[in-house]
Each structure stands twice: as C-alpha cells, then as structure tokens.
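Quarterly update from the structural biology core.
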Amino acid sequence: MSTSFNPPQTGPFRQRALIVGGVLLLILVAMIFLDRRQFFQAYLIGWTFWTGISVGSLALLMLQHMTGGGWGFVIRRILEAATRLLPIMALLFIPVILGAHSIYPWTDHEVLEHDPVVAFKTPYLNLPFFTVRTVVYFAIWIALAYFLNRWSLEQDRTADARYAKKMRVLSGPGMVVLIFSVTFASVDWYMSLEPEWFSTIYGFIFVASWSLSALAFVTAMLAMLTREEPLNHVVKPLHFQDLGKLLLALVMLWAYFAFSQYLIIWSGNLPEEILYYLERTHGAWGVIIVAIALLHFAAPFLFLLSRNLKRNPRRLVLVALLILVMRMIDLLWMLVPALREHRWIWLDVIALFGFGGLWLGLLAWQLSKRALIPINDPQFESVMATDVHR
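Predicted structure, tokenized:
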C-alpha cells in the first residue's frame, strides 16, 4: 500500500474536540444538582442531534453501496467512521432511560390518572417496552454498520470483489429496515413527548432530517480533508458537485415532509392536532419558524442551484455548515415546546456542543484507524481517473 494512503493523523484535533466536549458535558452534568428535569431534557436534545448524524451516515452508506458513484466513494470512510460510533451512542442513551420520568409525561402516574387518552396508550407507552424497542433499534443499526464496516475492511485487505456484492445486497433490505426503525424510534423518543398528539409523517421527517444532517456534515468534513494528502489528489470538483446535488435533493425532501405535515394538520383543523403548531408559531417560536423557512430551505435551495457553487468546496462548505446550524435550531423548535417546564435553552446549546465535541473526538479517533480511500474497491480506478474539468 502506498504511504500516501495511510490513515490520517487526527491526534491534535481529537484532543481539542474531546477537551471542549468534556468541559461542556461536565457543565451539563453539574446541572443535575440544580434541576434534574432540565438536565435530562437537555441531554436528550444534545444526544439526539449527533446520534442522528451517525444513523443518517448509515443511510447514506447503504445508498452509496446501492447506487455506486464517485460521490460515495470519496466519503465512504467518513460515513463508516460515523457509523462505528453507534455502539457508543447506544450506551449514552442509558441516562435517557434512567431519567425518563423527567422527560416523558406517560411515565407520570398523575398524568395517566387524569388523561384517559394517554392512559389508553400505556400498553405501548410503558418504560419496559420502551427500553426493549430501543434495544431493538440499536441492534438493527449496529448490526448493519458492523457488516458494512467489516466487509469494507476485508475488501481492502483481500481485493476480493465479492465483498462489494455483499455490501450491495445487504444495503437494499437494510435501507428498508432502517427507514422503518427510524420511524418507530422517532415516535417513541420524540412524538411521545406529547402523547396526545400524533402525525403519520413525523417519522419520515426524522429520516430526511437525519440523512440531511449527515450529508451536510460529511460534505463539510470532506472539504476540510481535501486540503491535505491523500484526498487532495483524489477528490475533484465533480465529486463536490454530486454531493451538492444530493444535498439539494435532501433539502427539498425534508421541506416536502415538513410542509406536508403542516398542510395536512392545518387543513384538518382538529383540536388534538393543531395544538402542536399553535405552540410553535407564537411568540419567539413564530420568529424561529420563519428563520427556519428562510435559512433551512429557501437560502440553501437557491445557493445549491448554482453549478459553480457546488463545484467550489469553500463555498459549498458554508452552505453545509448553514444547514447544520439550522438543523440544530429546527431540532430545538420541534422538541423544546414539547418538554414539560423546560426553561433553560442555554443548557440545550451546551448539550449540543458538548455532545458535538465528544462525537467529533471519537470520529477523529475512528478516522485514524483506516485509510481515507478504499483502495481495493472496484470503483478505485474509475474514480482516480475522473477528469478534473468535468
């Protein structure tokens, strides 16, 4: 193997990320002594965003194996590294289960006694069954990530083309299972924060938003990694253009699902459904949803229509970072109004960046384990021969 394809040296970045994440998470943990409820609610928000990038990376990884193409080849190692963090994120969900009584109203006996609608749902919404379902979701995601990572590594070692076929064959049904599991997980973890409310599109919003978050992050990461060996000789403007096209498609898909949910609930005008938007369109939340519409959809949509912007990594990374920031804000807009007696938004921000430092540090550690290019992949020669001017 050429030395230019050795794993990247990520030590300094890893140390800085872990230090920042560790300090912020210590501040977050200290808040448990001031307000237990605020701590667990903020913990759920921070954990959700970064776990979503790992799960979304798994979806993109399987999409790449099914469709092929240079765009997926150049980001595969980043996607694989992100999926290898799923076991750690699964362990980090344990505090959510332990603090469920501070997060989920269906765990409160007083709520069950006075609300027959919530009480009717207790055969499904109960902590033991909730825990079992969570274990199943993570078992599915971790199993998919394990086999895709293992076969990819074996392909690097042996140059056996059958591993590419194995990954492609697994990715088809794996994508279907992933979509269903993310849908059910979003219902369990987030829709049940408001157990009287329901939406048939809610799960698809999370499928689209987690995939969008993952793609925006990976695009930004790739743009930074292409400044050095070996990616600066491998990644071409055409690859960024393809990533920009997919980013545009996911922005539109997310907007389609989000607006469809609003349109259906608005046209139905049912009291048990419209409360969700009444709480999220008044006061400061009303200003935030306008900002989301402009900066999460309209601005990225217009920017990503430009071919020149998509082929320019420096400009494309700005759009990707804008999307990531708006994904955080949209997550706060979706979850904070549903949380009981939640007042400390600043603690949510600390949780988001604290988990971010930890997750980025662990990602850098995983990236240092393998070469950034799958050198024995069947697409290797075609990607390396890509015309830089195309």
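Residues 36 and 304 are 43 Å apart (CA to CA).
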